[in-house]
Amino acid sequence: MFGLFKKDPIKKLEEQYSKKMQEAVNAQRNGDIDGFSKLSYEADKIDKQIEELKKD
């Protein structure tokens, strides 16, 4: 019953991943390749966290 109000950590991470990827795309469109690579790296770390949680 109390699990009903528990937040899903995977959903939260997926939202963060989506936001980082959108920021990366915007950086790339603006010609900020260094920013794009940093944001892509951060998004990749979030994606790996999602995959780890899905395994469990």
Care to describe what's here?
The two termini are 22 Å apart. The model has no long low-confidence stretch (mean pLDDT 92). This protein is mainly alpha-helical. The protein has one domain. The protein is built from two helices and no strands. The longest helix is centred in the C-terminal third of the chain and has 23 residues, at 33-55. It has helices spanning 9-29, 33-55. The radius of gyration is 14 Å and the shape is elongated.
What order do the helices and strands come in, and which of them pair?
Elements: H1 9-29, H2 33-55
Into how many domains do the coordinates divide? 1
User: What is the overall pLDDT average?
Assistant: 92
Alpha carbon gap, first and last residue: 22 Å
**Shape annotation:** elongated
Uncertain runs are: none
User: How many β-strand runs?
Assistant: 0
Biggest sheet layout: none
Bin the helical content: over 70%
Order of helices and strands: HH
Using only C-alpha atoms, the radius of gyration works out to 14 Å
Instruction: Give me the number of helical elements.
Output: 2
Structural class: mainly alpha
Query: What percentage of the residues does DSSP assign to strands (E)?
Result: under 5%
Key traits:
single chain, 56 residues, mainly alpha, 79% helix, 0% strand, elongated
